[in-house]
Amino acid sequence: MVMEKIPCLDLKAQHQQIKAEVFELFEKVYEKTAFSGGPFVEEFEKNFTQYTQTRFAAGVSNGTTALHLAMLVLGIGEGDEVILPANTFIATAWGPSHAGATPVFVDCTSDTWQIDAKKIGEKITSKTKAVIGVHLYGQPCNIDAVEEICKKHNIFFIEDAAQAQGANYKGKRVGGFGEMACFSFYPGKNLGACGEAGGITTNNEKYIIHLQGLRNHGCKVRYYHDEVGYNYRMGGLEAASLIVKLKYLEEWNNKRRAIAKRYLSEIKNPKIKMQSQPEWADSVFHLFVVTTEDKDGFCDYLNQNNISPAFHYPVPCHLQKAYAHLGYKEGDFPNSEYLASHCVSLPMYAELSDSQVDHVINVINLYK
Ligand SMILES: Cc1ncc(COP(=O)(O)O)c(C=O)c1O
Questions:
Q1: Among 136, 160, 186, 313, which residue has the most ligand 1 atoms within 8 Å of its CB, making it the best to mutate?
Q2: 4 in a domain, yes or no?
Q3: Of 20, 98, 201, 267, which shows the fewest CB atoms inside 10 Å?
Q4: What is the predicted pLDDT for the residue at 1?
Q5: Which domain holds residue 191?
Q6: Ligand 1 pocket, mutate which of 9, 64, 68, 286 (most atoms under 8 A from CB)
Q7: What predicted TM-score, i.e. pTM, was given to this entire model?
Q8: Does the residue 1 lie in any domain?
Q9: Which of left, alpha, beta for 367 (phi over 0: left; psi -120 to 50: alpha)?
């Protein structure tokens, strides 16, 4: 039997399972015409605080606006600097940039591919206001080490948990560390909406009250605007889809963990390197990224063998055209640059069958 090509991500497989349940809740959103903000967003926020073991959550329009709002609520703006890893999805840097601040990049470690806490100190200046720790590919970053530096220098720590809904750091859910955590519910995320959506969690009541105003045109009372605000609300249909999907997130994350466990233990090709998994990090494997010297040759080989690779991310933030004015150059962050030019994402989603996982493992073990 000819096997169909295995995609890197198959959203259809997930949505087929829950379609009826999601559509049923969509009907209720329609009945109430609660399309922007409203009761479904509030219900999702309540459920998400329970899930993340935090006190407050604010649903917003996407993960990028979550990061922008986090900056604004912390008073970060023009003239300020915010430290973040060079090897993240670019939106982590958009947060500070949209607030008028300057992103300052730091290299990742060569094994976990997370921000290298030891390199943060040398980037701190009198303008530094915060560090954004990214839980890359679903694995929590080295939170204690990053927080320790932030405390020492009296600057904020913010989590970019866009890729890590449900991950645990030393047994505690991400989302409750630092000042705030920003989530993306982009459709391809472990918890992804039927549409664009994002969220912020925090244990600080002052922040949540400010966030609720800012996302809604800067007003708490309709048509009375306390400050320049934004239309960054979450939609009702998106919230409804998230209410349904949150119920399955643990099950889906555990399936991803089981697939990752197989990849980690059964792929034994010395040409393939994987993200190391420290014992304090319980990843939710949003992506399963490997590196190999001949990336193009490896990808051709995967494609010829019915496996679709993907790349996260081919250009590190400091070498993007958008940040050319900051004056970074090739060679500034060797680990991030190596990762960018050698990374290949393997198929990773909860609905991968055992035989598909067998195929990926066998094919990679036969790669020469
Ligand atoms: C690490 C990271 N930060 C931020 C974002 C931005 O989220 P969104 O696409 O919902 O704006 C994403 C998602 O794409 C991401 O992966």
A1: 186
A2: no
A3: 20
A4: 57
A5: 11-106+113-243
A6: 64
A7: 0.98
A8: no
A9: beta
